[in-house]
């Protein structure tokens, strides 16, 4: 299938064109160049607060083109997501706008703080501003990254779309494949055909048979942190369970998700398996978030792991040519790959020229040309949120080694992960920050052995229902 066909089919059916907000590209005027509207706020200074992400690192290192185009000075502050959430909350609740442009994580910022974000439709539809290049239809996951409860308002433009996939040491799988297959009785080649139970067996096999090459078979981002919830969710969904049973809760979201569904038989089975899996994982997994896991994999500590695909850029520096990528294993229901996309929006407290200048930055930072720049940047390596970028010849070429856009080496796995039957979407609800804490706090007790899987899921469900009334 052609790339555009894969993207449209993958995000279009079931989740996509209507739900994730992906449609065909509708060309319109370009945002590049020094045309009308770009200089109108020259001399303004704005502040952008972002999680420590690949696109923001690239833009921070390459913001001069924006300043030259607009005459606007942009200061970029990057930090851990949990710290960002607290700072944005304080800024908005205090009626201030220390940060004009906000990295609006759909679950931890957009849903609980949507009232503090500006509706971007006023800029998109105002002809005094440069138009969005190729139109809103060019964006991947516009609803999931940019809306809450209603499709009539747009709070953010898709900025990045990291997705959890299976990363593995291709060199070690090549070396041990025959022996592993003989011992385990199945072809261990990573793919969506491998089940989570087989993943466990492969990890255990590496632990017992390949210590000379790698300390442990698998590693996980199982620190008592948002990362633990992300890691577990892949298994939860794969087993056919979910946090709530509400249509479109992962895309447009809901203020009233109803009762938790975390005590279904499928959810209990998922918890039991995850508890078993962590028992054969690298023992430091309980101290790792996604960065810790990414660094451990790049350092050769584990043979495989589920992690955000944007760590490919790090892998290609530390383990050049030795890493392979696949969608995550399949559970009793499906393969489920956690989508972690985020948009950037504007603090509604920003005034006058700050609002307009912030919009120009949002427009520029999400433009196709800027996204290609972040792909190429030595300090970045983000993932395009534009269908048009995936169609570019230089981007297609980068899907094979040698690649000057290493994250594109994961393209085949990511495109497969984005198909509606494989994508995993967390519930976009206003209370998610509290619910997220409940998930990783209880899972930490389970992994530590102080709470069994059934009690863990019952506690989660009870606490969810209390928070949501």
TrEMBL record:
Keywords: Signal, Transport
Signal peptide location: 1-23
Keyword Signal: yes
Coiled-coil region list: none
InterPro entries noted in UniProt: Bact_solute-bd_prot1 (IPR050490), SBP (IPR006059)
Family annotation (Pfam families): SBP_bac_1
Family according to the record: Belongs to the bacterial solute-binding protein 1 family.
Protein name: Extracellular solute-binding protein
């Amino acid at each position: 299938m052609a790339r555009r066909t894969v993207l449209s089919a993958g995000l279009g059916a079931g989740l996509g064109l209507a739900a994730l907000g992906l449609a065909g590209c509708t060309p319109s005027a370009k945002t590049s160049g020094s045309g009308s509207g770009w200089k109108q706020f020259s001399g303004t200074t704005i502040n952008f607060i972002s999680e420590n992400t690949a696109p923001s690192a690239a833009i921070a290192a390459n913001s001069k083109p924006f300043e030259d185009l607009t005459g606007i000075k942009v200061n970029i502050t990057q930090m851990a997501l949990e710290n960002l959430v607290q700072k944005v909350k304080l800024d908005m609740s205090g009626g201030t706008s220390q940060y004009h442009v906000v990295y609006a994580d759909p679950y931890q910022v957009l849903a609980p703080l949507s009232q503090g974000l500006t509706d971007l439709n006023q800029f998109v539809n105002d002809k005094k501003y440069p138009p969005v290049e190729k139109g809103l239809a060019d964006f991947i996951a516009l609803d999931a990254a940019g809306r809450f409860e209603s499709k009539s308002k747009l709070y953010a433009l898709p900025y990045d779309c990291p997705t959890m996939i299976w990363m593995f040491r291709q060199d070690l799988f090549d070396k041990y494949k025959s022996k592993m297959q003989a011992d385990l009785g199945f072809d261990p080649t990573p793919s969506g055909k491998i089940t989570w139970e087989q993943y466990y067996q492969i990890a255990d096999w590496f632990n017992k048979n390949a210590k000379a090459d790698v300390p442990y078979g698998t590693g996980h981002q199982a620190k008592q942190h948002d990362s633990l919830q992300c890691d577990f969710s892949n298994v939860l969904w794969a087993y056919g369970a979910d946090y709530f049973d509400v249509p479109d809760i992962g895309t447009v979201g809901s203020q009233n998700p109803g009762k938790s569904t975390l005590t279904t038989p499928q959810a209990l089975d998922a918890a039991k398996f995850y508890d078993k899996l962590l028992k054969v994982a690298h023992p430091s997994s309980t101290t790792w978030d996604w960065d810790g896991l990414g660094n451990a994999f790049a350092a050769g500590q584990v043979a495989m792991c589920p992690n955000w695909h944007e760590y490919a850029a790090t892998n290609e520096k530390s383990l050049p040519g030795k890493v392979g990528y696949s969608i995550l294993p399949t559970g009793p229901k499906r393969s489920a790959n956690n989508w972690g996309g985020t948009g950037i929006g504007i603090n509604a407290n920003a005034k006058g020229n700050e609002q307009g200048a912030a919009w120009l930055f949002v427009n520029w930072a999400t433009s196709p040309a800027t996204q290609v720049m972040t792909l190429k940047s030595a300090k970045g390596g983000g993932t395009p949120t534009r269908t048009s970028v995936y169609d570019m010849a230089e981007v297609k070429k980068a899907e094979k080694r040698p690649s000057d856009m290493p994250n594109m080496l994961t393209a085949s796995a990511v495109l497969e992960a984005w198909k509606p039957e494989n994508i995993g979407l967390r519930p976009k609800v206003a209370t998610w920050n509290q619910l997220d804490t409940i998930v990783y706090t209880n899972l930490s007790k389970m992994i530590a052995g102080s709470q069994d899987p059934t009690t863990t899921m019952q506690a989660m469900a009870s606490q969810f229902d209390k928070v949501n009334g």
